[in-house]
Amino acid sequence: MERLRRNRQGNAIRQEPDLPPERLFPNSPTEPASEDDRKNWKGFCEIESEPAFFNVMLHEFGVRGIKVQEVFGLDAELLALLPQPVHGLIFLYQWREEDPSDQETKCSERVWFANQTIENACASVALLNIVNNVPDAKLGDSLELFKQSTQNLTPAARGNCIGDSDFIRKIHNSFARKMDMLDADLFLKGKATKKPTKTRKRLAPVDDDDVGFHFIAFVPVEGQVWKLDGLEKQPQMLGSYSTGDWLYLVKPFIESCISKYEEGQIQFSLLALVHDPILDLYQSLAANMKAVQGLSSRLEEVQPDWKGFVATTAGDEASVEHNLIVCANPDFGVDQAAVDDATMDTITQESIRSSCFSSLMTTRQKLIDQQADLRASISAEEVLSKTDKQRAADRRHDYGPLIQRWLRLLIQNGSLKALVEKAEQEGY
Fold first, then answer.
1. Which strand ranges, in their side-by-side order, compose the sheet holding 86-94?
2. CA-based torsion, 417, 419, 424, 428: positive or negative
3. Which of 64, 85, 200, 298 shows the smallest number of beta carbons within 10 Å?
4. 62-96 pLDDT, tens per residue?
5. 3-state DSSP assignment of residue 221
6. Angle at 195 between CA 5 and CA 13, to 5 degrees
7. What is the pTM of this model?
8. Tens digits of per-residue pLDDT, 189-237?
9. Interval 159-180 mean pLDDT
10. 269-275 and 236-240 as β-strands: parallel, antiparallel, unpaired?
């Protein structure tokens, strides 16, 4: 959830013009949102802090080599378990206005930072504020073009470009359900008709009902750590670091936010954008296949009938040969070009050049074992990816019409009133 009840002074949220409901959603409000509904809607929907949703968004943006994982604690032991390098953090918390004096007077040219200029867009803004600062990131054609075209703009102008981008909005709003869109439009209408209050001269206490939950980003850029909050006019530099570990500079701010909650309250979450190991696994598998090909050629030279020894050295010849991948295999994300371009380590290269038949067969068995481990790791990562896609598909499905029909049936047979009374008696 990410609804914002108030805006940063001097950083007003753009509001789309009111349009009659029939123009936005021609079909019944009780019907699921259609592709045309999502395409024509100019708002942004709320998105929960779920790694699966962010992973699917990144993939559909075209980003490769980066994945999102949940962070379960700030202890050094837990942070050390994250795949390295950590490219950034996304923190969801109950937003409060910070002291403007902590911000930079202007955005550094080294930092790609966009303001959030449209309601509920902070999930996409936080993602983009991180991936667009990752050196040599594989962003995909569309996102790379977006980054380059906005490189010389101000943070506010970049934020406007996010709101105007059909490419970004389509992916973000793939999670929008009909009621999400109607609710967001109703909220904006209420804000538009609400009598404006006087501008505050200083920070003041705010009622919890007047604030909402908001995603912000933390990212390392050239030895400095930056807090990138789309609701703040400029980024905030948290400090400098000299080694690869930069998370300790973020820890005090996050712990300060968490300490404001009462004991037992979990109203925040932390996600990490980390290096995706699947690309390294693909490269290692390609190198392994290249080694197997080279070793087979060497065995032909040293012992032309070497295949007759396979059964005696590795057990069942048929099963071993069936499971061993020698040529390009798209099922494991490796084509022949990747095999040809792969680089073998020095030890493997020397082992393949051996003239000893026994040593070559020992190397072959090591390569077989290595390939089995690589394929198992690749399969595990692909299962995680499929699970993420299924969670996203479930979230994107609009269950609203089914729930409404179920409630109508309960009303028609007189069951709903009794269920409500029972729930009230039980304290729900």
1. 66-70, 269-275, 86-94, 213-221, 224-228, 236-240
2. negative
3. 200
4. 999 999 999 988 888 888 889 999 999 999 988 77
5. strand
6. 40
7. 0.81
8. 676 666 655 444 333 343 444 457 899 999 999 999 999 999 999 999 9
9. 92
10. unpaired
| Three-class DSSP labels, 14-78 | ECCCCCCHHHHCCCCCCCCCCHHHHHHCCCCCCCCCCHHHHHHHHHHHCCECEEEEECCCCCHHH
Pair of tokens at residue 345 = 């380590």
CA distance 284 to 278: 10
37 backbone dihedrals φ, ψ, rounded to 5°: -60, -50
Hey, which residues does 274 pair with through a beta bridge?
67, 86
* Active site residue ranges: 122, 214
CA angle 170, 175, 180 (to 5 degrees): 105
* Cα-Cα-Cα-Cα dihedral sign, residues 329, 334, 338, 344: negative
Helix ranges (DSSP H) in 151-226: 155-164, 166-172, 178-193
Find out whether the peptide bond into 17 is cis, omega within 30 degrees of 0: no
Could you tell me where the DSSP H helices lie in 346-414? 346-352, 357-396, 400-412
Q: Which of 65, 92, 48 shows the shortest CA–CA distance to 273? A: 65
In DSSP notation, 151-162 reads TTS-HHHHHHHH
Are 158 and 150 in contact by the 8 Å Cβ rule? The answer is yes
- Report the helix count and the strand count for the chain, using DSSP H and E: 18, 6
